Structures are given as C-alpha cells and as structure tokens.
Amino acid sequence: MADPTDPKLIRISVKNKGCAGMSYHLEYVSPPGGKFDEIVEQDGVRVLIDSKALFSIIGSEMDWKEDRLSAKFVFQK
C-alpha cells in the first residue's frame, strides 16, 4: 500500500472452514480485480467483493476494531 503508483483495493472472499461454516478472507489486489467482483464504495472507501461471497456479505457491516490484544476487521449482520 505504500507505493502510490501501484494502487491496491481490498478484496473480500469467503472460504469454507470446517463445521463452523464460512470464514472471511481479505487480500490486497490491483484494480480492477476479478472478472465478476462487485465494487462497493461508501464514505470514499472502495472494496471488492468476490461474486461467491456476495450473498454472505449482503447486509453486513465491516468495521475496524482495535484493542490491547488485536487489531482486525469484524463483520456484523
């Protein structure tokens, strides 16, 4: 992300994770992303959502949380 000549977007996808269901996977990608990725923009922030993850993410709120033990994105429905 430090190189302004090579902009990156965050791409959100889901992966099967045992009996618990799905886990969210975030990665940096160069625009425009995957062929079927959906671009979502709010408050000047753009993220890509993998087409397979779209139905899992619709209606969710993604937020950044920091505490003394961790710093992470959280998803709330």
Task: Describe this structure as you would to a colleague.
- This protein is mainly beta and 77 residues long.
- It has one domain (9-76): HesB-like domain (Hypothetical Protein Aq_1857, Chain: A, Sandwich).
- It has one helix and six strands; from the N terminus they run E-E-E-E-H-E-E.
- Strand 3 (38-42) and strand 4 form a beta hairpin.
- It is globular.
- It starts with 8 loop residues before the first strand and ends with a strand.
What proportion of the residues form beta strands (DSSP E)?
over 45%
What's the CATH architecture? Answer: Sandwich
Helix content: under 10%
Shape label: globular
Class inferred from helices and paired strands: mainly beta
The span between the termini is: 28 Å
Q: What would you give as the CATH superfamily?
A: HesB-like domain
Might you state the CATH topology name? Hypothetical Protein Aq_1857, Chain: A
For the largest beta-sheet, the strand count, sense and barrel status come to: 4 strands, mixed
The number of helical segments is 1
Instruction: Please report the total strand number as a whole number.
Output: 6
Order of helices and strands: EEEEHEE
Report the C-alpha radius of gyration, rounded: 13 Å
Low-confidence stretches: none
Protein name: Iron-sulfur assembly protein 1
Organism: Naganishia cerealis
